[in-house]
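Dataset card, provenance and construction

Sequences and ligand SMILES were collected as paired inputs. For each pair, a complete structure of the chain with the small molecule in place was predicted and serialized as structure tokens. The example below shows a pair involving 2-acetamido-2-deoxy-beta-D-glucopyranose. Curators did not alter the output after generation; any descriptive sentences attached to a record were derived from the structure itself.
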Amino acid sequence: MNCCCFKIFFAAFLLLNSANFQENFSNNAKQLLDGKIHKELADEMLSDDIGIQQGNDVKLMKPGSINLTLTLNKLEFEVCKRDCIGESKVCYESLNGLSDTNAVGSCSGLSSCEFKVKNDEEDNTLLFGEITHVRKSLFFGCLTSTMKYPLVEVLKNLEFESCDPKVNPADKMIKLQVIHLSSCPIIVKNAKIHVPEVASTKPPPTPNPIDSSLTASFPWWGILIIVFAFVLAGIGIAYCLFKKRQASKHANIKPTVSNTNVATLESPSKRKKES
Ligand SMILES: *[C@@H]1O[C@H](CO)[C@@H](O)[C@H](O)[C@H]1NC(C)=O
Ligand SMILES: CC(=O)N[C@H]1CO[C@H](CO)[C@@H](O)[C@@H]1O
């Protein structure tokens, strides 16, 4: 009888298992976890993005082109002296200043001007462009510079040549090319990663990928299988209980039943044993 109970439960278990519910559940759990970790911890390391959003700003992550929306209509780069131990270069599309070869720098051919910053270990400065050395002892934390033609004042009386950024007046978008990022992070202040217009006219994105995958992984036949498995398990339990009660009836009642009753029910062989 015990063996039979096991068989029934095992069949129910197999049914559930064959439907991949466990696998899908763990997949969903993994997705959930991945999403969380991605957001909270490993954004910078795992991301394939050229830039990532950090509050109101965008941190440039790796070489490539990226479109940004400049919320305040100005292109402002931030460099922090503690983080900048290498050298970085960014080209930004420009309007005025393209004739200034110093401002254009190595961005020639891209209709862009260059923002270049380098840690100069020897004289303990940050070098902006080719000639503008800013002594690190002159400032705390970070420096911001707003690109404009013909000069940017990065600190009082310290200027470098730059251009007016070409910001699309309709959507405040600017195109950047990150040329080089080597241990000198650059943050674009008051910027958002530009979302192309076409994306918003497409069918609206699924509100929550985790929710939709959860519902998608439970088709109607899946529910049917669960119900069937439960019914099977229920029948199994009922059957086992019934068998058990019958067994205990036989075991308990036999000795106390009156002889006359037993005589009519019992087989001849058993009667022989009792007598
Ligand atoms: C930036 O926007 C232009 C359209 O103005 C588009 O052609 C280009 O692919 C975009 N670049 C990126 C990296 O999104
Ligand atoms: C039973 C069930 O919903 N199985 C699904 C598990 O997930 C895969 C894809 O990840 C689906 O193809 C199965 O239909």
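Derived descriptions for this record:
Residues 50-198 form one domain.
The chain has nine helices and 14 strands.
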